[in-house]
Amino acid sequence: MRTLNNTDILKLPKLYRNNLINSISGFKSANLIGSVSENNHYNLAIFSSVVHMGSNPPLLGFITRPHSVPRHTYENIKATGFYTINHVPAKYAQQAHQTSAKYDIEVDEFEVCGFTKLFSDMHSVPYVQESNIRIGLKLEEEYHIKANDTILVIGSVIELIIPDGCLEEDGYLDLANAESVTINGLDGYLAPQKIDRYTYARPHQPAKSITK
Amino acid sequence: MRTLNNTDILKLPKLYRNNLINSISGFKSANLIGSVSENNHYNLAIFSSVVHMGSNPPLLGFITRPHSVPRHTYENIKATGFYTINHVPAKYAQQAHQTSAKYDIEVDEFEVCGFTKLFSDMHSVPYVQESNIRIGLKLEEEYHIKANDTILVIGSVIELIIPDGCLEEDGYLDLANAESVTINGLDGYLAPQKIDRYTYARPHQPAKSITK
pLDDT digits over A191-204, tens only? Predict the structure, then answer.
């Protein structure tokens, strides 16, 4: 067991602290965000900060830095108002990680990292063909986070392209069956194995296993 | 393959839509948030929306509804300024899920759901003894999300209690070794299995596997 207080944490070497603090929030979503610039340059970048904001209306958020690596994504979303979120499938984890490299704006990460563009009629931003779960979004709101100069970008879901075999009768989308991965820290990729689903919990009616 | 647009999604039955939309952001963090009221009532509630906001300073965020189930957590944090975030370990997934029941404010979820309080000298909010990764936080900022009347709560890490065996030389905290779980949708719990870690990606130096 090791205990670190805020002073200990601030004294850690930068890379060590980055690895550690990026791990402590728990397992993260692994998504490729697709976008396109006004000059028609396509962009694809991995994000581990996509978070569920609400189901009605369906809203997803993600955190970005305005003046750091993935700014192409943010600038493109601001310019066009649309973007796609595509789950990273286990087989493509290494290629997905490669999209985090600081490519120039003219470079199409779909091409250099080996992903195929899939277009829809709803908007002009490509999805990732290799992903099993693909989400089309329209920019709704953004919040500037004063504490560390990041931005929370919120979009509404305007399209959802999902595989049939992963969708259960009650709307539960089985992400392990979809071969989606999860991220640990900055660079760890894992494939989750189902433990169980539990029934809705009530104070006097404890949650039970949902057995098939 | 199934494609749903925004109109299709809004027409889905409520529970079906909740299950589906809660699944699409990808795998989520599984955390028990501990808090205490001004009248010394302890609270413990599961959250799947804890997200990394930044490493320097170390900041974590989570999304809550002001007028919904886990409002005790939010009210307590506002009242005292402190809270704990504790990873859900695989063995305790069902008990952790049970904390989502709508217990009265007087009910101590640590007790009724079978978790042990662990106190530190840094603040007066208990950690979860059964969790392997435990984080103490101080409330820093909150943002009211207009799009759906939720709140993003941001706290700075003031204490970190982690097991020795899970910490690698470069600060990477191996969450699979810590037996932390991930959440799929509203009620699915999974144990992630490591695929690999990859080196820092550069445009002309593709990321490689970090092999031991």
Answer: 999 999 999 999 98
Q: Tokens 């070497």: give the residue.
A: A13
Q: Which of A184, A199, A202, A210 to mutate to test the interface with B (most CBs of B within 10 A)?
A: A184
- Name the nearest CA neighbour of B56 among A174, A167, A20, A120: A20
DSSP code of residue B209:
B
Alpha carbons within 13 A on the beta-carbon side of B77: 29
Q: How many CA atoms lie within 13 A of B98 on its CB side?
A: 20
Distance from CA of B145 to the nearest CA of A (A): 8
A154·B140 Cβ contact <8 A:
no
A60·B206 Cβ contact <8 A: no
- State the DSSP code for A205: B
What tens digit of pLDDT does each residue of B87-115 get? 999 999 999 999 999 999 999 999 999 99
Q: How many CB pairs under 8 A join A and B?
A: 399
Dump the DSSP string for A65-110. Answer: -TTSTTHHHHHHHHHHSEEEEEEPBGGGHHHHHHTTS---TT--HH
Q: Model ipTM? A: 0.97
Query: CB distance A27–B172 less than 8 Å?
Result: no
Q: Which of residues 136-165 of A touch B (CB under 8 A)?
A: 140-141, 143, 145-148, 150, 152, 154, 156-164
d(CA B185, CA B90): 17
SS3 state of residue A112: helix
**pTM (2 d.p.):** 0.97
